[in-house]
Amino acid sequence: MAATINATIKSETANSYVTLTEANSYFETVPDSSTWTNKTDDQKNRSLIAATRWIDTFVFLGSTWSIDSE
Question: I need a surface site. Which of 1, 10, 23, 33 has the fewest CB within 10 A?
Answer without folding.
Answer: 1
